[in-house]
């Protein structure tokens, strides 16, 4: 009686370096970029006008996120399905945020003030 | 990995089993028990609605507070502790590994844990009936400020509040959601990675597709509610003001967080049952499933739309009216993919060689009743009509005409269909037909009349209508009594099923492998399948719905039958009207 | 896109090892939970520009130090994964210990910061603010504590899981779990990368 399951996936237990499909990007360089972006966002926070500051700070946050997720989490080596999963997360959160937007941010404070 | 040869004690074999079949049955049993609780609660408050203030047999007098608590808990239990375990967890666990031809789930221990977390969540919910103040009574939707104690006490006593009905209900739901999340991960990874050789994505049976799509919808939409539930819990036990307008919070935020999940949740409940129908119809019409690939695409479209329509539950709550237009359009659009799926089911039946077995009857009953529910949903999805109908019995009847066929007819179709496989025994079909007809008639008797009450303006969640002169007259009072009598008979009809179940289980095994002559892989295994499922793991050559294929001697071709030489040509010949000596129809 | 990357983009989905696939899905689920919380916070942040005054009371210095700590600990855990693939158990233990230390430093920093904020009267409910007539400021702090508290809980869970895995690695078992624990840790880091500007810099 065959005891092991018929399985397309040989990497199930331990993808060792020779057989795993993902390589190792230059982690040290990535770390330096991340720390550099952090320094940039701190400087921007103190210098620029509010609108530009917010824009640049969130742009650096998004760039840092992309660096971590692509390199440390090896997303750049994963198949399309994983990209779709991450994209779906972002789209769902956008749908929630913009669906709620007219009911909370768009209502000025005075309406909620107790009389 | 010799998962089969290790010796199993009673505890690891039946209680803390990691075998997907045992876990699937554990979920089904819990779901049936909780359905009994939910049904009993419904009996109590329906009796009170028909005979206000009367002494209720098997219970006593019902106070207004208890009425609210029972209505709330009936809803909560039926959605989270009956619908989810029975349709998603139980069917997913029982069917997925067998139908894709593998030995077990990808993460068996996580699977076992998920059931026991679910079990604990049920205990937490039931315990909320027995704490001071009783169970929460503010509707299964748990809207603040009521669900946060009205924000009267801004310095709550932590432990007293933690063990109040409200907090226990929030904790129970949170635990249940965690259990379902764990299950969902298991289903997805198993279906993606552990399929039999040759089972390409479009050879996967529809029920497996739909359970996975339902898991995806669930996992993506539940996040904001978990966040919101934490906030509501802290409002209750710590005195924060997340939903308190006096402190800058907003109750509308809770409504959005709740319904952002609450609406996709109904499709999470619907898709597995539609999947069951997609398995039952081809087998009992001896015809391939019509438009297999479009059905999959339609389900994916509906999944995407399902997260964009949630505020149709909030049309009169004070949302921006311009958003109401957007959500109204989306709600009406979402009927299209489901209509497409229904039409495909009807096309599957059309011209088929129909076998009126018990599972087929449940499936057909589902179609008829869900159609009524779905059509009334179109009315409610139009924001103008909803201004009148919101919170009336029209809404309650709408969702019972959708949820009851979904959960009960879908589950019973699955039970009567797969019972021979998982037990090796057969359910008595005469009793099964009696069970079906009683359920069908008494369900309609209970609910159809209440449409009229709803249109007359009778509001829901009200214990005592004696001040509502428009309702306290004929025919609405008679309708209430008629509905209650039918509801009691509906609940009693389920005992026919229980009797059938126990007496059939007591009989000897017949162990027929494929009594319905079905194509899918689970029918290749023994009845019941042993630990590890298959003696030799099948290889797949064809899709799951090759029934009445021209040129073949049998009217069904299981998925592991290799494609015969010349089969494609034989089919093409028949389609082109060419008859040769080798064509047999 | 490098040729290396393109080849893998065509990899069929069922070639992703089960543990990794499961972890990606878990991460997606957790991101939606935090995303819901962050989106709710953002809705109110836009409604109440005066929350900027409240945000001024968070310590940007400690926040920045914590960001550096978490980024470096993400680096150390991925180096541990690289070592695990080389089957170099000694190095794995060293890198993982550094990661756990990073988590510990984060939690200690956070506690110091919480202590300062609580002693100034900014608590979950901030009754002092209520009494001073500020009707919306206390909500900022409720969000601050729930977001950083939930995040801190995940840091603690991540550290605990890593310690358990380290016991298994010592015996040479389950080396693939280093990568999985690492992915969870990166998710925790990612959430902080967003929390930091939202609560600390945007004033």
In short:
The complex is a heterotrimer of chains A (115), B (585) and C (203). Chain B has 17 helices and no strands.
What is the global morphology of chain B?
A: globular
The SSE order of chain B reads: HHHHHHHHHHHHHHHHH
**What is the first-to-last residue Cα distance of chain C?**
38 Å
Provide the β-strand percentage band of chain C.
Answer: under 5%
Poorly predicted ranges of chain B (pLDDT <50, ≥5 residues)?
1-5
> Which CATH class of the largest domain in chain B is shown?
Mainly Alpha
Mean pLDDT score of chain B:
92
Element layout with pairings:
The complex is a heterotrimer of chains A (115), B (585) and C (203).
Chain A: H1 27-47, H2 50-72, H3 80-100
Helix pairs in contact in A: 1-2
Chain B: H1 10-15, H2 20-50, H3 64-99, H4 108-127, H5 158-162, H6 165-193, H7 206-237, H8 251-285, H9 292-306, H10 321-333, H11 335-349, H12 358-381, H13 383-389, H14 393-423, H15 429-455, H16 476-506, H17 567-575
Helix pairs in contact in B: 2-3, 2-4, 2-16, 3-6, 3-7, 3-8, 3-14, 4-6, 6-7, 7-8, 7-9, 8-9, 8-14, 9-11, 12-14, 12-15, 14-15, 15-16
Chain C: H1 3-9, H2 18-47, H3 51-55, H4 60-85, H5 89-119, H6 127-131, H7 137-170, H8 177-201
Search tags:
heterotrimer, B: 585 residues, Cytochrome C Oxidase, Chain A, globular, disordered N terminus, C: 203 residues, mainly alpha, Four Helix Bundle (Hemerythrin (Met), subunit A)
How would you describe what is shown here?
Chain A has 115 residues and is mainly alpha-helical. Among the domains of chain A are: 48 residues; 31 residues. Chain A has 3 helices and no strands. In chain A, helix 1 runs antiparallel to helix 2. The radius of gyration of chain A is 22 Å and the shape is flat. The N terminus of chain A is likely disordered. With 585 residues, chain B is mainly α. Chain B has 3 domains: 241 residues, Cytochrome c oxidase-like, subunit I domain (Cytochrome C Oxidase, Chain A, Up-down Bundle), CATH 1.20.210; 233 residues, Cytochrome C Oxidase, Chain A, CATH 1.20.210; 68 residues, no CATH class. In chain B, helix 4 runs antiparallel to helix 6 and helix 8 runs antiparallel to helix 9. Chain C has 203 residues and is mainly alpha-helical. Chain C has a single domain, classed as Cytochrome c oxidase, subunit III, four-helix bundle (Four Helix Bundle (Hemerythrin (Met), subunit A), Up-down Bundle), CATH 1.20.120.80. Chain C has 8 helices and no strands. The longest helix of chain C is centred in the C-terminal third of the chain and has 34 residues. The N terminus of chain C is likely disordered. The chains are: A mainly alpha (115), B mainly alpha (585), C mainly alpha (203). Chains in contact: A-B, A-C, B-C. Chains A and C meet through helix 1, helix 2 and helix 3 of A and helix 1, helix 2, helix 4 and helix 8 of C.
